[in-house]
Every structure is written in structure tokens, then in C-alpha cells.
Design brief:
heterodimer; A: mainly alpha; 5 helices; 0% strand; B: mainly alpha; Rna Polymerase Sigma Factor, Chain: A; 75% helix
Chain lengths: 140, 191
Amino acid sequence: MNCEQVKYELIELLEGTLSAEVLDQVEDHLRKCTNCSGFQAELKLSLEVVNEEKLKSPSDLFTGKVLALIEENQQHSRNFTIGVKKVLLYAAVMAIGVFIGAFTGSMLSENSIQVSENEPQEFYLDGLNVEPLESFLISN
Amino acid sequence: MTEKELVDKIKRKDQQAFKVLVDKYHVAVINTCMGYLHNRSDAEDLAQEVFLQAYLSINKFREDASISTWLFRIAVNKSLNHLRDNQKRRNEKTLSLIQSENTNFDIEAGPESGSDYKTIESERKKNLHLAIDSLPENQKTAFILHKYDDLPYVKIAEIMNVSVSSVESLLFRARKKLQKKLHDCYKKLHS
């Protein structure tokens, strides 16, 4: 086996997945080649980083932090719901106010039309209360 | 308490039952996130979000898989989304640096020859993280679930929703790719 072939198999050697025959050939090469054995040692140390990084025992504070996060999230939801309800309430009040105003306005304008129907209609051309042109022509 | 009883209690918002779930699985979830993020503090923060999501969407849990499978799936998805968001932010930052007039890139100094032990250790960690980050998403996920969570192939297949032979293939390719990346770093260091 040459160096390229051995390097291809090194990670499998460390994982323990090599067949017996290939294992013998790889180990034989590693005994003679310092370059490949040097990389094998480095590869082994690199993969051991994974074991060093893993959390091995439970964290005492973690569960408390999760429960606090849930409580915070529920508080935000409650605040948001209250906020939305307030906005809807204001919108409803405004809508009712506009409706009452429009309704009252339409009632008042109906009454003013009835009053004007009972009075003789007098039209003025301008604010000087000059009688309309039509009645002037008719009277003359 | 059986798993079904535990899930039913959590669905009724029983916080004591949820506490049991967190106590039982938080190590596994943190380790999964650690495999992606390479930082303990970030991994714990993300793991908290995993459990928050699990609590909020427990009614969506269909019980066709185990609760641990479901938690691992949430952890994997959240971790991948976190990496994608970070990548997007890094790309935007790089683009704005390139577009700005006064660009001053800091060149990270490599380790000096004859460095002390801590520098070599930190360099080794960095190379491993870079090698893991360079894996395609599915190979990365299979590798992390196998190496950081010590899960058997059957469980990994269930979490990733693939066959066991697919998991074997993903892990084989992941190992080869990692080895090549680490060898390239080794050659640079010893050239």
C-alpha cells in the first residue's frame, strides 16, 4: 500500500471499520512511514476535539432558563393580545362615533328640508337680497 | 410515566411534565446544536429556543415518531436555519466591505513555528470546525448526530427521514471529505 491509499483509509482505521486484511496493510505501512503516522496522530487528535466539546453531564441551570423563556414568551403574547384588543376597541368607538354623527346629520338635514318646503322660496342673486332676475322679468 | 402520558400532560400545559422532558433531553439537544455552532454559549441559547418551540407546538406532535426524534428534528432545523441566517449576514457584510471605498481587510496571522500548546490546540479545533462546516448539509447532519450525539444509524435514519443505507453512505462520504480537508490543513502546517 502506498501513502495515498493509506491516507484514504486512515479515518476508517480510527473508526474501526476496516476489514482485517486492509487493517494489516495499513498498520504495516504506518510502522514504516513517519509522514503517514504523523498525520494519523493529528487526525486522531482532531477527532477527539468532538469528545472534548460534547456536554457530558446535565446542566443544572438549563431547565430554569427554558421555563423563564416560556414565561417571557407567554407574557409577550398576553401584552400583544391586550394591545390588539385596545386597538380594536378604539376603532369600534370611532366607528360608532362616525355612525352616530352621520345618522344625526342625516336626521337634521331631513328636518331642514321639511321646513323649507313650507316657506315661500325666495332666491337671491347675491347677498344684497336683490330679487331674482326671473321675478323682475315676470313683474315687468 | 410512559412517553405517551408525558406528552399528554405537556399538551395540557403541565409544566412539571415539560420539566421532565427538558431534564431528560437537554444534553442531547445542546450537543446537536454544538455540532453546528461550535460555541457552547450559542448552542445553549439555541437549545433553549428548541425547547420553547417544542412547548409552543406540542399539539402538532403527531406521535408517529418518538418525542426524542421530534426534538432532534427541531434542533437540526433550527441549527441549519441559524447557519443560513449567519451566512446571509456574512455575505451582506462582505459585499458592503467590498463596495465601500476604504476597505481594510485584516489578515489573520497563522500560527508561528514552535507555537505553544494552546495555539496548536486552538488551531486544531478551528481546522475541525472549518472541515465540518464545509460538508454538505445532509452529510453534516449525519456526522453530527453520529459523533456529537452518539446515535445509532437507525435513529439517525428516523430523524433524517432516510434509509439506514443512506445514512451509511452519508457518513462514509462525510468522513472522507473531513479527512481530505484535515489532511490539506496538515500539509500546510508541515510544509
